[in-house]
Design a protein that fits this description.
heterodimer, A: 280 residues, mainly alpha, MetI-like fold, 2 domains, 15 helices, disordered N terminus, B: 323 residues
């Protein structure tokens, strides 16, 4: 009986392998065509779209990087993403510190107010946001994106960080309190250090939506100097319409940094990206 | 939790509020100004006509009347509305069903390469919707696309249709590409859900002679109900806000012939870019579109929650009989 059960298990593992490896091909095949063809010459793509390049062509990459604004778009995205995440972590950690330790009714209300934002899509308020950004004179600059992204990131930051600080054992801070350390000193010298893994989760959770956001740059920014990577990709996609090798080079350059980051820390990514959802 | 009251017990009249305010205020001000306020003020905006110089005139339900009583507007609204539901159902049927399937398969005992599969399944979810959309647009290109060439290579030419160009297929094609991209999300969430199911439930089922299919049907599925609810809500909210997928693979007009026009693209045209042929944005009517979407989202999320949270204690889902 035991061997029979094992046989059944082995059998279903085969089915699992069939299903999962089919899907693996379905995922990797498009990415493969993207990367492989970006190194081919224009007409070789049509002759053999699936194989490795016979003659390697690096000119597409060179011309994208040298003759277009790609580098500038990339830099804009990097600056906005990193800056927004840093602000989310800073303001989020301060707020979470207060919400976790201040035990009173208003504290619970404010907490609930933040958490509500996890489910509310900020896009719905876009028209009003657009008017506000115009009124503040931020329209057409990357500065318009910071307040929106920071507000988008705060709910999950407050949620994850508050839960985390609440679970910090009192013994770790008690001695400092008795020694007369103030709130800020305890925050700076103890809490921030303990908070690191949670901060990483929050950072990753926000990294992908900020980096991959098209909507807000699209409605706020039309000045080429302030375009983000994806908005720039939409322009280059139109510009290179007939030259697939270049288009694919642009797409590869836009996709590969995130893929590499993901592959180097996939566990944290999966945990981070599903963080808001699993508990919420 | 930190007990600051060791020192300051009952000192201040306002309790601890003034001491915590400096920590809370920056986040609170930002979040209230740029998230809570625009969301709720959009509802108010839908009752006004916004002038060119920022002036506002109260017009009651006029924006809604124009949206639902003017024939062309109503036609576009309900077409986008129906398309969004279709978009949502394809995601539920493909993305979330595959998500459960993959999660169950990944949990099989002794499965080699499980972490490799898991990593691969999630890759597309880290990419920008725009990049994925553009890539598939090229792959699905009826003349030079990789899929077309592949199908011709294995003489399945009849499958080489202009999938994105035919009104009949376009929305399905866009939905499937989007489901392809996001399937990793439900997979990971179901995976976490299955990991929380106690092992002894499966062991006792196995001792009782239950087949794999039976233990999935009577243990896994009922136990995953709360996760299913969260996944459904996220899919629902995500789909009613989707824009990039159609923008990348078709255009903001939901080509061909508005067949892929969804709430996101309709909202963009009405409120932000301006509709053909006038091309002047109508913030008031756009706000009315946003407000109705808001209402649908709130209602839909509440219904999904009710359906999946109710009687979670009873492991037996009603309405279906065991075979």
């Amino acid at each position: 009986m035991k061997s029979l059960r094992r046989a059944r298990r082995a059998g279903s593992n085969t089915l699992a392998h069939i299903v999962l490896s089919t899907w693996t091909v379905l995922v990797l095949f498009p990415l493969w065509t993207m990367i492989a063809n970006s190194f081919k010459f224009k007409y070789d793509i049509y002759k053999d779209p699936f194989g490795l390049p016979v003659k390697w062509n690096f000119d597409s990459y060179l011309s994208v990087l040298r003759d277009s604004d790609f580098i500038r778009f990339f830099r804009n995205s990097l600056v906005v993403t990193v800056g927004s995440i840093a602000a989310v972590l800073f303001f989020g950690a301060l707020a979470a510190y207060a919400l976790a330790n201040w035990r009173a009714k208003p504290s619970r209300w404010i907490y609930a107010f933040f958490i509500a934002g996890m489910m509310l899509p900020i896009k719905i308020g876009s028209i009003r946001l657009l008017q506000m950004v115009k009124a503040l004179g931020l329209i057409d600059t990357i500065w318009s994106l910071y307040p929106v992204y920071i507000s988008m990131g705060l709910p999950v930051a407050v949620f994850v960080l508050t839960e985390f600080i609440r679970e910090i054992p009192r013994e770790l801070t008690e001695a400092a309190v008795i020694d007369g350390a103030g709130r800020f000193r305890i925050f700076r010298s103890i809490i921030v250090h303990l908070l690191r893994p949670a901060l990483a989760t929050v950072a990753i959770f926000n990294l992908v939506p900020f980096w991959n956001d098209l909507w807000f740059p699209l409605i706020f920014i039309s000045d080429d100097r302030h375009k983000t990577l994806l908005l720039g990709v939409t322009r280059l996609f139109g510009q290179y319409q007939t030259d697939w090798s270049k288009i694919l080079a642009v797409l590869t350059l836009a996709a590969v940094p995130v893929i590499l980051l993901y592959l180097s820390m996939s566990k944290q990514f999966i945990k981070g990206l599903t963080a808001g959802a699993v508990k919420g | 939790m930190i007990d600051f009251n060791i020192r300051s017990r009952g000192k201040a009249l306002l309790g601890e509020a003034p001491r915590w305010a400096p920590y809370l205020i920056p986040a609170l001000v930002l979040y209230s100004t740029f998230m809570a306020f625009p969301l709720f003020d959009s509802v108010r905006l839908s009752f006004f006509r916004a002038g060119a110089v920022g002036s506002r005139e109260f017009i009651g339900f006029d924006n809604y009347v124009r949206l639902f009583a003017v024939k062309e507007n109503a036609l576009r609204y309900w077409s986008a509305f129906a398309n969004t539901w279709y978009f949502f159902f394809v995601h539920m049927a493909v993305q979330n069903v595959l998500g459960i399937l993959f999660a169950v398969l990944l949990m099989e005992k002794g499965l080699r390469g499980a972490s490799f599969y898991r990593t691969v399944i999630f890759i597309p979810a880290t990419l920008a919707v725009l990049v994925v959309g553009y890539l598939w647009k090229l792959i699905l290109n009826p003349q030079w696309g990789a899929l077309t060439l592949f199908l011709k290579g294995v003489s399945l030419d009849f499958l080489a249709e202009p999938w994105l160009g035919e009104p009949k297929y376009a929305l399905t094609a866009v939905s499937l590409v989007s489901a392809w991209q996001w399937v990793g999300m439900p997979t990971m969430m179901f995976l976490a859900g299955i990991q929380n199911i106690p092992d002894d439930m499966y062991e006792s089922a196995e001792i009782a002679g239950a087949s794999k299919l039976q233990s999935f049907r009577y243990i896994t599925l009922p136990m995953l109900r709360p996760v299913l609810g969260i996944v459904a809500i996220l899919t629902f909210v995500g789909n009613f806000n989707a824009f990039d997928a159609v923008f990348a693979m078709e255009n903001v007009n939901g080509a061909p012939l508005y067949s892929t026009d969804i709430m996101g693209t309709f909202f963009y045209r009405v409120g932000i870019a301006g509709q053909h042929p006038v091309s002047i944005p109508d913030p008031g009517m756009g706000a009315a579109v946003a407000t109705t979407t808001f209402a649908v989202l709130a209602l839909g999320a509440a219904l999904i929650l009710k359906a999946t949270r109710e009687d979670t204690a009873g492991a037996e889902p009603a309405g279906r009989k065991p075979k």
